[in-house]
Amino acid sequence: MPRTTRPLGIGAITILALASVAITPVATAATTTEHKQPVAVGTGGAVASADFDASKAGIAVLKEGGNAVDAAVAVASTLGVTEPFVAGPGGGGFMVIRLASAHRVVTIDGREMCSARCTPQLFLDPKTGQPLPFENARRSGLSVGVPGMVAQWAKAVHRYGKLSFAQDLAPAIRVAERGFTIDRNFRQQELASLPDLQSFTSSRKLFLTPSGNPLPLGSTLRNPDLAQTYRDLAAHGPSYLYDGQLGAEIAQTVQHPPVAPGYHGFYIRHGLMTTKDLSNYVAKVRTPTHVTYRGLDVYGMAPPSSGGITIGEALNILSAFPLASEARAKALFQYLEASRLAFADRGAYIGDADYVAVPRQGLLDPAYARTRSCLIKDHALPYPALPGNPYPPYGGCGATAGRALSDHEGTNTNHITTVDRAGNVVSYTNTIEQLAGSGMTVPGRGFLLNNEMTDFDFAPPTPTTYDPNLPAPGKRPRSSMSPTIVLKNGQLDFAVGSPGGSTIITTVLQILINHVDFGMSLPQAIAAPRVSQRNTPTSVAEPAFYNSSLRRTLERKYGEMFTEETGAVLPLDKWIGNATGIQNLGNGRLQAAAEPVRLGGGSALVVNPGS
Ligand code: GLU
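Above: the input record for the complex with glutamic acid. Below: its predicted structure, written as tokens.
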């Protein structure tokens, strides 16, 4: 099985002991808000994100009297400035919100949408009828979906926030004007997306030196274009994008990509999006998914994300096993197999439920899960695991239907978690899909456009196959984003989420079992080495897991197979995910937790620090 050499010096994750052994303690309390830290404890509200400036924006808004929704929008818009290759107003995302006084969990779907001109053949080469190579499909106008982020922010603030949209955008405007320091993570992302940024005149101008090179480490990047875009949105509201000048410029960019002559020779296709598509866009309020696991209420994101259903099904499957009292290798074997089976169902049944009939009730039914958990015995299931039959009365153990499908989602996005003093909670994952998205910056506007439409399956339908995730007019591609909120007796227990494409699902699932079953604190559960099984021949493992005795036991005893994570996009960063979360410690105390090491570590802050 493939295995790469681990570079020296950056493998700090290796100091985190394995899940089965001890976890090196991370800081447990914050005493200052002046530097980036992965864990903070205190009262009055909390924010956790991938970035210090962004988390500070959230805290500033909470201090001004905003609630968790205002804070989440402040953090997300600031991440559009400081993490432009990962997120921003050109993307989309999913927000799960717990409304404290209403005792309700709601979600807002801000997923990007395909043009009314999309067909299932969107990513087929008209000359050959064959799927386009992924990298060509991605760097094209075809991959750009109608951005949902701004509509989602505005809807969230309007319905559930306390401040105005303009107040929530103010911190991001300040950071865009003042600028921020290019750190190692930004520089690595820029290096990894260099061919994309060099291929478009507008991206070159915004993100590279005049000679087309990456910005030097430690330099300051100001983005007055994005500051002005946010100011325009603050002044005119989201209609400035969906029915106005900004929308016209987005459609123009998609239809006529600003290709830099002579660069890299990608065949960059024109896109289909029109201003009519933009004015048709709606951020949709949807009912969350819900399962109970070990007495906790777990809320997640419904389709078009597959996150809530797939995690919910896996948890239902795992309910059959006493993970907490089992040997760790056995429990992890069951985790891998539950994930494998849930992914088989995800591929077969989940797409945009406004377009395809997703058997949501069956997939989340504990009775259905019993027809899946009975398959998990003492040896890894053969590849590929087949989907089950989630239509009542379900049939016997492992009754199967359908075929296994795979995906090629990017792995770079971000997750924001916020809580306010009233107990409102936001768990919010958003993205522009691949690192640097489609590679195209809207000229003079300061942000990149997504390539989210490549989350659709490319292969053409045949008379004998069914695929719930093919492009269609106005359809939203299936996502893996898994913003999650867990309640105990109706109160927040913890909230969590992560980037990572389809590994988001396994990352969130593994954090859940680390915390709920294995008794790790939330920071420990987030820090622990990860392993991801998505109905593939081998499970992908972070180096610290791959090099552990646990991996060898899982191979020897249970026939599991592993591949070491090689850092596909950023070869030096062999991580899976970049999670954030917040734990309710009781008596008004909150513990915010971000990644301690992965991708340079995230930023956890509280309004009033103190243990
Ligand atoms: N496009 C992916 C999804 O919707 C997320 C990409 C990422 O995590 O970078 O699930």
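Notes for the reader.
Confidence is low (pLDDT under 50) at residues 1-33.
Residues 10-25+37-285+411-609 form a domain with the Glutamine Phosphoribosylpyrophosphate, subunit 1, domain 1 fold (CATH 3.60.20.40).
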